[in-house]
Design a protein that fits this description.
245 residues, alpha/beta, 6-stranded mixed β-sheet, 4-stranded antiparallel β-sheet, 9 helices, globular, binds adenosine-5'-diphosphate, binds magnesium ion, ATP-binding, nucleotide-binding, AAA+_ATPase, P-loop_NTPase, ATP hydrolysis activity
């Protein structure tokens, strides 16, 4: 690789008490790369991507995000959070704030953006996720698919360099999965660097540069989508694919 990775992870190990949840994780993510992470429930996928925006501590190894070294010495967590947007399975919108207020909260308070600018930015992204007309509604008035698109717009309003998605469609009714995946495909086409935990293998095939398969806290296999599906290297990958496809 010619350029420095935008996310560099080396020798990452993490424990919850005695439980060794992440084992020797090594991943470099180049700018514009799209990585899909899959694997059985409990394999450490969420814990892994939560480490990348400092939602979880880790005990060994290094994580560097756009030149910012994460770890116990990190003084300003918000420096990382504003570079790394995150979208969760359960949307995590603030129910008592409107769609627009959900999107402008962090830009105003973390980025110190003037309210007018934050609102303009938020509207731009709400248009991009195709729900500008819902701006003054409350999350509870929207469908799950719309709420998740608001969550994506909210993350984008911070103008992050990297976007993390943790099973963004698993809590949605089937008919709403596509609208969220379409939004993510658009984002990928615009060149966003993305790490996506998902079992949507159609999305992985279409969008991923690399697929990472995790099991029991380890990266078992890293492969191109073509090879991952046609020629998986490990028995555990084969078993996993046979269960979900
Ligand atoms: P995945 O996202 O692949 O389903 P997780 O990263 O959520 O896996 O969890 C990995 C393992 O770590 C699971 O066994 C889970 O029970 C455990 N775990 C997750 N969060 C915590 C926590 N805060 N404290 C203790 N154990 C946890
Ligand atoms: Mg998870």
């Amino acid at each position: 690789m010619t350029t420095d990775p935008i996310v560099g992870i080396a020798g990452l190990n993490k424990w919850f008490g005695d439980f060794h949840v992440l084992r020797d994780i090594e991943v470099d993510v180049a700018k514009g790369e799209r990585i899909v992470i899959c694997g059985p429930s409990g394999s450490g996928k969420s814990t892994f991507i939560r480490c990348i925006n400092a939602l979880e501590e880790f005990q060994e190894g290094r994580i560097v995000v756009d030149g910012i070294e994460l770890g116990p010495q990190l003084r300003r967590v918000d420096e990382v959070r504003r570079e790394v947007g995150m979208v969760f399975q359960s949307f995590n919108l603030f129910p008592h704030l409107t769609v627009l207020e959900n999107c402008t909260l962090a830009p105003i308070w973390v980025r110190h953006m003037p309210k007018k600018d934050a609102e303009a930015a938020a509207m731009k992204y709400l248009e991009r996720v195709k729900i500008p007309h819902q701006a003054s509604k409350y999350p509870g008035q929207l469908s799950g698919g719309q709420q998740q698109r608001v969550a994506i717009a909210r993350a984008l309003t911070m103008n992050p360099k990297v976007m993390l998605f943790d099973e963004p469609t698993s809590a949605l009714d089937p008919e709403m999965v596509k609208e969220v995946l379409d939004t993510m495909v658009d984002l990928a086409k615009e060149g966003m660097t993305m790490l996506v935990v998902t079992h949507e293998m159609g999305f992985a095939r279409e969008v991923a540069n690399r697929i990472i398969f995790m099991d029991a806290g380890q990266i078992i296999e890293t492969n191109t989508p073509e090879n991952f599906f046609a020629n998986p290297q490990h028995a555990r990958t084969k078993l996993f694919l046979s269960q979900i496809l």
